[in-house]
Amino acid sequence: MSDVGKILSALKKKGIINDVSAIENDHIAFRTIGVPQLGIQSLEKIFLHHGYTAKDDFYFEHKKINARWYAPPQEYLPRIFISELRVNDFPESIQQIIRSFTDEVKVDPVDHLDLNNAAQVDEFLHSPLWRIPKWSEYTTLAEVSEYASWVIYNKYYLNHFTISVHNLPAAYSTLEAFNDFLVSIGISLNSAGGYIKTSQDGLLRQSSSVSKMIDATFAEGVVHQISGSYVEFAERKVLEEFAHLASSQIERKHRRDGFETANADKIFESTYLSQTNTNKKGKD
Questions:
Q1: SS3 letters across 55-68
Q2: Which of 277, 268, 30 has the alpha carbon at shortest distance from 145?
Q3: Average pLDDT over the chain, rounded to whole?
């Protein structure tokens, strides 16, 4: 069973939720390759078309990644977080490998979608954009950027979705308590930067599972285990100016919004070998 399935099943079994619909999805995240016909500027068109608003930009210097998040048109919808690899920041030999894949995409594929056709958009997000890499190509990329190798194999497949912990019943509405619950059901947690990553203002707290390993078939026909998707968990604290509100009055707009570079930097590592190899189960 996937981590998502295990977590949702356990939440229902323990009576924490009655139905999956009780879970608020804080945000969903996508990884892309930053070339002219792809990247953030391409994928964001889907969400901007449906009323999302582009907000803050982020730059992850060490990982050579840009990112941008988008606020939804209605509060019940998830935020969107799109990142892209800064291809030009890599050595020419690595750029050549990456572009050998992305050059197969001649024009921006989103421009040819009917963005009002949900089934067509969903199919696009689950469809290959380029050829299947060779194992040697994958490992060469992984040596310099595990983000790059992940995207080259997984394409635009959803990187993660996020459970809003603060909206769960009181006994599970903090990351300390929820991480305890996760460990009790055998979920491995990302320890990069600590099991709980906290923004400078202390109002955004995040943790995540370690990516599940999946069997991946490469171009030569060989099968190797690589990182798939994972689950994130977010606790957004109430802003100081709304601290007087009763819990029943608190809405999303009363809580800390947006993202934090330092937190996200470590969340990226949920798919990295430093986490998947250790297979740790723990918490702060």
A1: EEEEEECCCCEEEE
A2: 268
A3: 93
List, in sequence order, the alpha helices (H) in 50-188.
92-102, 118-125, 135-144, 146-154, 175-184
Please report the pLDDT score of residue 161 as a whole number: 83
Q: What is the pLDDT of residues 255-272, one digit of tens each?
A: 999 999 999 999 999 999
Alpha-carbon distance of 128 to 141, in angstroms, equals 18
d(CA 214, CA 188): 15
Question: What distances in angstroms separate CA 246 from CA 17, 240, 242, 264, one per listed residue?
Answer: 22, 13, 9, 30
β strands within the chain, DSSP E = 25-33, 53-60, 65-71, 79-85, 160-164, 197-198, 204-208, 213-217, 223-227, 230-236
pLDDT, tens digit, for every residue of 101-160? 999 999 999 999 999 999 999 999 988 999 999 999 999 999 999 999 999 998 776 678
Kindly report the CA angle at 245 between 177 and 24, in degrees rounded to 5?
45
Is the separation of the CB atoms in 144 and 74 below 8 Å? no
Residue of 187, 190, 217, 173 lying closest to 284 (CA atoms): 190
What is the distance between the alpha carbons of residues 77 and 26, in angstroms, rounded to a whole number? 8
Q: Could you tell me the domains of the chain?
A: 3-276 (3.10.180.50)
pLDDT at 284 over 50: no
The CA-based angle 170-280-32, given to 5 degrees, is 85
pLDDT of 283 over the 50 cut: no
Q: How far apart are the first and last CA of the chain?
A: 26
Pairwise CA distance, residues 247 & 207, whole Å: 23
What's the sign of the alpha-carbon dihedral 147, 192, 185, 163? negative
Task: Classify 238 as helix, strand or coil.
Answer: strand
**Residue 26 phi, psi (nearest 5):** -60, -50
Q: How many CB atoms lie within 10 A of CB 247?
A: 8
Count of Cβ atoms closer than 10 Å to residue 95 Cβ: 15
